[in-house]
């Protein structure tokens, strides 16, 4: 069998070889100019797919960073608002102590009452703080409108009780600003667990100055009433009006019963009553209103002055508890801010790792690529030289 090698076949193979070398050189030029060794997906299908997945992860980390910035801004503004609210409550406490001074005149108390009304307006403004983007901090998920409104002297909450969870790093979530209902409304009275008050019908000069658990842990949440049978004696009755104990009264001494400890100062009259039971919830605005009402009481009689002192003492306890609630809310927000800082470190570490892996997949090795480029260039030049020499070859040249 004879195999014939034609001139056209030799030309075709030479041209194909030169085109192949030119294609490789063009590809290497693209790699060198772009700095990427994966010019098209066919260069490394597996690597290209892996790189796309890493790009998505980097985009997700960037999105989580934006989430973190947004919630960090809101929590920072919450911290500022609660700090100012705490200062207002401290001012209320100072004014209450000042107003409880028997030497204050009626005009002095009116001045205190006027300042308290102004503080209520300031507190309302803080409760309606925005985040700078038109959203209200303390509205929960319904943060498009002001969460608190004032109508006929009564403050109403229009938000909801939802506290958003925001992802700030893979698998890490933080809580957004707390709903205003948890900060400004649902504040426990008294010491947060137990509360008490003097009966409005009292005629003596006894003032309830302290009420708390006695530390024994025996109080089961039951309600009791300290009823004075004489100026120096009392009986303790439970919720069913059953006498559970009796005792002798000395002004300023603790009266203990059912796991509770009550201190009354002054001179109660026979028939005066002081109640004790579970603390209820009251909003901070109502606490200010009750304080103003106490200051506006008629103090022309001894009973009126005593009722005012009892009202001021109760308000002082409630204001103190409200201040503690603000501190608790600030502490919770601070914990979330700490989590955001930790999440930022995690995102940064993940970003560095992903970019390093992407660099290994995509970035061209210039030394290797330049060497390959020179090699392919030399091969192309050799192919072109051979083709030129081959073109000049002819049978007539051989027989001359």
Automatic annotation (TrEMBL):
Record flagged with keyword Secreted: yes
Domain Flagellin N-terminal as annotated: residue spans: 5-141
Location(s) in or outside the cell: Bacterial flagellum; Secreted
Gene3D superfamilies in alphabetical order: f41 fragment of flagellin, N-terminal domain
Entry coiled-coil feature ranges: none
Keyword vocabulary terms for this entry: Bacterial flagellum, Cell projection, Cilium, Flagellum, Secreted
NCBIfam families given in the database record: flagell_flgL
Family: Belongs to the bacterial flagellin family.
Protein name: Flagellar hook-associated protein FlgL
Lineage summary: Bacteria, Pseudomonadati, Pseudomonadota, Gammaproteobacteria, Lysobacterales
Gene name tied to this protein: flgL
């Amino acid at each position: 069998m004879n195999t014939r090698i034609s001139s056209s076949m030799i030309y075709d193979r030479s041209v194909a070889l030169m085109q192949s070398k030119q294609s490789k050189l063009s590809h290497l030029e693209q790699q060198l100019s772009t700095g990427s060794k994966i010019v098209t997906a066919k260069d490394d299908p597996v690597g290209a797919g892996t790189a796309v997945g890493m790009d998505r992860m980097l985009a997700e980390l960037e999105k989580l960073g934006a989430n973190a910035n947004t919630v960090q801004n809101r929590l920072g503004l919450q911290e500022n608002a609660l700090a100012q609210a705490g200062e207002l409550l401290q001012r209320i406490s100072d004014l209450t102590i000042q107003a409880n001074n028997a030497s204050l005149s009626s005009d002095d108390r009116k001045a205190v009452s006027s300042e308290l009304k102004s503080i209520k307006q300031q507190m309302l403004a803080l409760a309606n703080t925005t985040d700078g983007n038109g959203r209200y901090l303390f509205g929960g998920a319904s943060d498009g409108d002001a969460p608190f409104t004032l109508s006929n002297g009564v403050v109403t909450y229009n938000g909801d009780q939802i506290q958003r969870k925001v992802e700030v790093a893979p698998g890490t979530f933080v809580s957004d600003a707390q709903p205003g209902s948890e900060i400004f409304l649902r504040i426990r009275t008294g010491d947060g667990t137990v509360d008490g008050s003097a009966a409005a019908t009292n005629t003596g000069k006894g003032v309830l100055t302290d009420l708390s658990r006695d530390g024994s842990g025996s109080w089961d949440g039951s309600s009791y009433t300290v009823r004075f049978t004489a100026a120096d004696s009392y009986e303790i009755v439970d919720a069913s009006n059953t006498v559970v104990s009796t005792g002798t009264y000395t002004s300023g001494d603790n009266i203990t019963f059912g796991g509770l400890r009550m201190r009354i100062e002054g001179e109660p009259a026979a028939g005066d009553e002081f109640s004790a039971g579970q603390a209820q919830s009251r909003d901070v605005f109502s606490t200010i209103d009750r304080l103003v009402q106490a200051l506006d009481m008629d103090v022309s009689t001894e009973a009126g002055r005593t009722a005012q002192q009892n009202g001021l003492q109760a308000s002082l306890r409630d204001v103190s508890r409200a201040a503690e609630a603000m501190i608790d809310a600030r502490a919770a927000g601070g914990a979330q801010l700490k989590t955001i800082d930790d999440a930022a470190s995690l995102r940064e570490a993940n970003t560095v790792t992903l970019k390093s892996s992407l660099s290994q997949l995509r970035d061209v090795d210039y030394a290797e690529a330049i060497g390959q480029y020179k090699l392919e260039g030399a091969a192309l030049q050799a192919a072109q030289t051979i083709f030129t020499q081959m073109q000049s070859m002819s049978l007539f040249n051989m027989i001359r």
